[in-house]
Amino acid sequence: MRDIEPTIQEWEAAIGFLTAVGQKGDDTRQEFVRLSDILGASLLVETSNGAEEGTESTVLGPFHMTESPRRERGDSIDLLGTDRP
């Protein structure tokens, strides 16, 4: 906060945003954790605290595919197909 020196209005807007994020959370939906991931705070903390000892953090997300199949607009993204019982 010292570096960016927000105005009172900017600080109030930030508090409003954080309040709205908090209100979306519940026992099964942890929006502050998601916000931490989006802002890069989770990765920074893991990296600076020896994350190399465990599973490598992913910046791309758990569903990223290096070789994603090419699809045309409107094609299904369901890799299992639609013929499921």
From TrEMBL:
<feature type="domain" description="Catechol dioxygenase N-terminal">
    <location>
        <begin position="2"/>
        <end position="52"/>
    </location>
</feature>
<dbReference type="InterPro" id="IPR015889">
    <property type="entry name" value="Intradiol_dOase_core"/>
</dbReference>
<dbReference type="Pfam" id="PF04444">
    <property type="entry name" value="Dioxygenase_N"/>
</dbReference>
<dbReference type="GO" id="GO:0009712">
    <property type="term" value="P:catechol-containing compound metabolic process"/>
</dbReference>
<feature type="region of interest" description="Disordered">
    <location>
        <begin position="48"/>
        <end position="85"/>
    </location>
</feature>
<dbReference type="GO" id="GO:0005506">
    <property type="term" value="F:iron ion binding"/>
</dbReference>
<feature type="compositionally biased region" description="Basic and acidic residues">
    <location>
        <begin position="67"/>
        <end position="85"/>
    </location>
</feature>
<dbReference type="InterPro" id="IPR050770">
    <property type="entry name" value="Intradiol_RC_Dioxygenase"/>
</dbReference>
<dbReference type="InterPro" id="IPR007535">
    <property type="entry name" value="Catechol_dOase_N"/>
</dbReference>
<protein>
    <recommendedName>
        <fullName>Catechol dioxygenase N-terminal domain-containing protein</fullName>
    </recommendedName>
</protein>
<dbReference type="GO" id="GO:0018576">
    <property type="term" value="F:catechol 1,2-dioxygenase activity"/>
</dbReference>
